[in-house]
Structure formats: C-alpha cells, structure tokens
Amino acid sequence: MNKTVLDKLKTYIYGFDVLEIDVFPAEGDPNSFDFIDREEDEVIASANFDEEGLANFSTYNDEESQTGSLKRDVLINKAYTFIDEFYPRDFSETLCLSALIDMDDFTMIVFNQKDKKFGLELPNSGVSFSIMPNGVISHVERDYHKVEVIYPKSCITAEKAKKLFLKELRLVPVIAKYDKDTYVNGDNRYYFVYEIEDYVMEVGADGKLQTIEMFGVERQQYAGEVCLSDPADLYTLAGLTEDHMKIYESKTKKGRIEVWSKKTKQELAVENAELAEIQLAIPDTVKLLFNQDGGLLRLLSEDHNSNATVITAEQALKKANEVISGEYTKNKSTFQLLQGDAELHHYTNEGQSEIYAYRFCYHRFEQGIKVQNAEIAIEICAKTGSLLRVETDQVIFADLSMLNIQQSITIEEAAETYKKGLSMELSWVKDLENGMYSLAFVPSFPQTRGHIRCINATSGEPWIIDTSCMEEFE
C-alpha cells in the first residue's frame, strides 16, 4: 500500500500528533490498516483498500471532537477536499452533491454519479461522509467507481406507471403511533389509521412490477387468534431451578435487569458491565429485562444442556403460548400468531442440519385491529423445551383501552387522498447482486416532499414522513 496515502490519512485523525501514530496491517486482512496511538497503544482509526483505492476510512472520536458548529458549506468543502486528495480525477469529476442529512450528532454528506444520457442520479455510486459538528471526518464510505447502466429500448409514461402502481395499492387498518420523530405534526399519540402497505417497490421502464416478494419478503399472514393456555411461571419456563442464584440485579433507563446462574460471578469471570448488557450472551446465564411496570421486555438464555430428544413444534408452541398467557394479557389484548416455518436450524461439525430451536412471532391486536410495531418473538430450545429468547416491542404494554376506533373515512376515500399526492418519478435503481442500474418509476410526493404512510381513519389527515433533516440537491 502506498505509504504516502496512509501518511495523508493521519492528518485527518483529530487530536493526535501524526509523528506519534503508527500504522499496521490489520490481522488477517492485508487490505486493511489500523492506526495506533503509540503512547496509549490504542486503535484510533482504520482504513480499508480495494483494487480501486481507498474504500473506507473511520476515526474513533471522543466526545470533545463532537463539539462545534461549523456551517454546512464548510462541511461540504471539507468533503470535497477529501475527495480531491484521495480519489482519482476521472472519478471525482463525475461526482455531484446529492444530499446533506442532519443526524443530530453528525452530518451525513452524500455524493453520487449521474448517467450521461438522462442526467439522473445513480444511487450508491459515489462517496458518503459522516462529519462531526466541528468538521472532523469520522467516516468515509466509497462505492465502486465503475457503474454499468442498462438503457431500456422503450419506456412507459409516468401516468401509465402510476396506474400500474395503484392497481396493487392496499391500505390496511391498523392502530399506530403518530411519532413526533417520524411524521410532520406528530404528537406521539395512538390513532386508528389506514396504513399504506409496502408491496410494490417500483415499476420498471417496461411496466413490470418489482414487489417485496421478489426481494424474498412475503406478505404477513396470521393463523388466527391465539388460544391461550393457563399461564405458567416465567422463571420455570426459562429453565431456572432451586440451584440457580440471582447473581446480578440493576435498575437502568432501559428497565430492571436480572441475571441468574448456577455459577457465581467469580466463577463466570465476568464484570458487572457485561452482566448489565442485555444483548450480550454469557454462557451459563439467564438474563431478563423488565420495564418499569414489571413487563418482560427481553430474555436471553445461555443456560441449557443438550438432550438426545427433540421436542415437537406443537410442544414448543404450547410453551410459547404459556409465556404469552403469563406475561402479556394484563391489558386484555389479543394476539395472533404469524404464519411461517418455526424451525431454526444450525449445522453440526459433520455438515448435517439439525433443529436447535423453534421461533414464534405474535402480533398484538386491539379491538380486532392490528397494532403497528407490536410484536413478541419467542424462541424455545428444541432440546430442553426451555426459553432461549424473548424480544418484546415496547408498544405491547401501551394502554389502548380508551382509544377511539371510529371509522369516519372509508378505505376508498383514504386511497383517494393518497392517489392525489402520488407521483411516479423516473429513477435509476441499483441491483445489489450484480451492481447494474436499470430505469424504473418509484413513488414520490412532490407536494409534501415526505411520503404519505398513513391516513387517519377518523379525520382523514395524511401522515407525512418528516424529511426536514434532509437537504437534497439537483
């Protein structure tokens, strides 16, 4: 690797003398390099190269580097300077400023190429930057220089594309949160709305529809309301016995964490910080996270022994239903089981596949209406029948008993509101498998800028995605 390039990158590492920074190839990857602070012997930055040069660069900044308030034009110029310094001219001269996104803690600046015939932007064809408020570049990501576009022999009109798109339009009645961080005029309250189902992703220049099913995503279907069994003790379902000890308990912003094990903390050789991290799996432990009202948010078990007998899916489902009965029916909600193959497999050393767990996903319904983003995922160990994982969306515990389910607007009327705001924009779409670009029409909403995602079923108000943090450039 060119030593001059690595030396230049040192100058972009904030708060360190370039003479005190050593550079070494990363272990196991000759194309990656770590930048080491000689005094502290710590990695302070890293870079990765490919056949086209610098692919990405990251600096690991402290909180001090986040302070500052440089203007947007200064940040953009810093990105341009980096591009001119590290990328060849035949690439840099094709880049156009695409977007500037305010991410609160940093600003993301995106550059892309455009095709020569239509002058349309080619997504994921350039360089993106993450820049701290004081101008420190914390991350650079470059896509491959060379792009291959497929120009169609003919192209349908935008009007025809809109008709094809709307033919598959489906609005689904749901209960959803009008989130302040997501929607224009959001108030964080729950409403009965019609949600626009994501099914058609784009309409090809030839009129062919690209749907979520082509990307391996199926429309959700439910097996009907869950027949709940008698509730069982959570700790028993998790496989805890009288031999287990509570080795850690703590209250945090996330909730109350409990950790159980047959071994002491000293025998496990772990620190409190490791025990407190609910997502960190530690052998021979069972971790539980409860919210402030005692509702189960997470369970993570690494305390199970393999037996020769594998339980059936029906037996595992009975266990999962017992968890639902015992932990999630206090607010009178009903649940429906998402259809799908429950078996989870892994491969043995001999290369054979075997079942290690069953996974069941439940969705909350209120007054017969699906609640958006309210899912419980439960994994049952196939060898022991005990709980392996529980992951619960916070909305599961929201009190929606007083929600007004009044349908003043029909689905047909809501669809008309959506249709009036919808336009179809001709754009280049990148195939992530082969990297080639093809022309397609994608939904856009020029009148509102942000996409319409829902229509209030009572007032008819459209819920519009807030894009005020993003500035786009032609």
Describe the structure.
This protein is α+β, with helices and mostly antiparallel strands and 474 residues long. The protein has 3 domains: 3-147, no CATH class; 158-220 and 406-472, no CATH class; 234-397, no CATH class. It is 16% helix and 39% strand. The chain contains 9 helices and 28 strands. The strands form 3 sheets. Strands 10, 11, 14, 15, 16, 17, 18, 19, 20, 21, 22, 23, 26 and 27 form a 14-stranded mixed sheet that branches. A 9-stranded antiparallel sheet has the order 1-2-3-4-8-7-6-5-28, covered by helices on one side. Strands 9, 12, 13, 24 and 25 form a 5-stranded mixed sheet that branches. The longest helix is centred in the N-terminal third of the chain and has 15 residues, at 72-86. The chain is globular and about 70 Å long.
List keywords for this structure.
39% strand; alpha+beta; 474 residues; single chain; 14-stranded mixed β-sheet
Structural category: alpha+beta
* Mean pLDDT across all amino acids: 91
Given the C-alpha coordinates, what overall shape results? globular
What percent of residues are in strands? Answer: 35-45%
Work out the helix count. 9
Helix content: 10-25%
Brief summary:
This protein has 474 residues and is an alpha+beta fold. 16% of the residues lie in helices and 39% in strands.
Q: How are the elements arranged and paired?
A:
Blueprint: H1 3-10, E1 21-26, E2 29-37, E3 42-50, E4 53-59, H2 72-86, H3 89-92, E5 96-102, E6 107-114, E7 121-131, E8 137-142, E9 148-150, H4 158-167, E10 171-177, E11 190-196, E12 200-204, E13 209-211, E14 222-225, H5 234-237, E15 245-251, E16 256-261, H6 265-268, H7 272-276, E17 286-290, E18 296-301, H8 313-327, E19 334-338, E20 343-347, E21 353-366, E22 369-381, E23 387-392, H9 411-421, E24 423-430, E25 436-444, E26 452-456, E27 462-464, E28 470-472
Parallel strand pairs: 9-25, 10-22
Antiparallel strand pairs: 1-2, 2-3, 3-4, 4-8, 5-6, 5-28, 6-7, 7-8, 10-11, 11-26, 12-13, 12-25, 14-19, 15-16, 16-17, 17-18, 18-23, 19-21, 20-21, 21-22, 22-23, 24-25, 26-27
